[in-house]
Design a protein that fits this description.
The complex is a heterodimer of chains A (114) and B (116).
Chain A (H helix, E strand, L loop, with lengths): L4 E3 L2 E4 L5 E6 L6 E7 L6 E7 L2 E5 L7 E4 L6 E5 L8 E8 L8 E2 L3 E5 L1
Chain B lengths: L2 E3 L4 E5 L4 E3 L2 E3 L5 E8 L6 E7 L7 E2 L2 E6 L4 E6 L8 E9 L8 E2 L3 E6 L1
Parallel strand pairs in B: 2-12
Antiparallel strand pairs in B: 1-4, 3-9, 5-6, 5-10, 7-8, 8-9, 10-11, 10-12
Classes of the chains: A mainly beta (114), B mainly beta (116).
């Protein structure tokens, strides 16, 4: 296992379309986080999972956003009816809570909404 | 709510010299973690160094060290013997120690340039 992976790396879509991103965490990491990073800003927390349970969602996560982590492995983040303001880098991170607090980040998915 | 502030949008350093990046934070909690993450251009974010708030000793990792001033809520990063590969965005981040919430709260970042 070489680290956190995300797919796709880049996504260009038209306003109003739905998009889905995938994150594969480091094996056996029980926590998985989604962040959003816009140009010139630090990452902002969106939501996180402990195993398959989604424990917290940020106010940034509107009802157009949904995330899942079936079976506590990979996770998907779906954005419905995309808006230009959704254009950002979406970062995934994982950690093994209980043995350390370091979060390992994936390369991100850059979303451009036209 | 906790906040993290990085007041230097950009910094520049000559290769082999030393540079210090500043970070201040606000929290009402006494136990927490602080981190510096590095994000190279088009590459993923990696952890540079971390500090537990209950530890008085400043963390060090090779050429990287921090100056943690808990009372002042200040957490600066010193990079010694700067190398070209140190050029990147540097983010200061805060994490609660207790409770279920484990997400990181980031500052806006400092872009570090290293001149040969």
């Amino acid at each position: 296992d070489t680290g956190v992976s995300q797919d796709p790396r880049h996504k260009i879509t038209k306003r109003g379309q739905n998009v889905t991103f995938r994150c594969d965490p480091i094996s056996e990491h029980n926590r998985l986080y989604w962040y959003r990073q816009t140009l010139g800003q630090g990452p902002e927390f969106l939501t996180y999972f402990q195993n398959e349970a989604q424990l917290e969602k940020s106010r940034l996560l509107s009802d157009r956003f949904s995330a899942e982590r079936p079976k506590g492995s990979f996770s998907t983040l779906e954005i419905q009816r995309t808006e230009q303001g959704d254009s950002a880098m979406y970062l995934c991170a994982s950690s093994l809570e209980g043995l350390g607090v370091e979060q390992f980040f994936g390369p991100g998915t850059r979303l451009t909404v036209l | 709510a906790q906040t993290v502030t990085q007041s230097q949008p950009e910094m520049s350093v000559q290769e082999a010299e030393t540079v210090t990046l500043s970070c201040t934070y606000d929290t009402s909690e006494s136990d927490y973690y602080l981190f510096w993450y590095k994000q190279p251009p088009s590459r993923q974010m990696i952890l540079v160094i971390r500090q537990e708030a209950y530890k008085q000793q400043n963390a060090t990792e090779n050429r990287f060290s921090v100056n943690f001033q808990k009372a002042a809520k200040s957490f600066s990063l010193k990079i010694s013997d700067s190398q070209l590969g140190d050029a990147a965005m540097y983010f200061c981040a805060y994490r609660r120690m207790w409770g279920s919430q484990g997400n990181l709260i980031f500052g806006k970042g400092t872009k570090l340039s290293v001149k040969p």
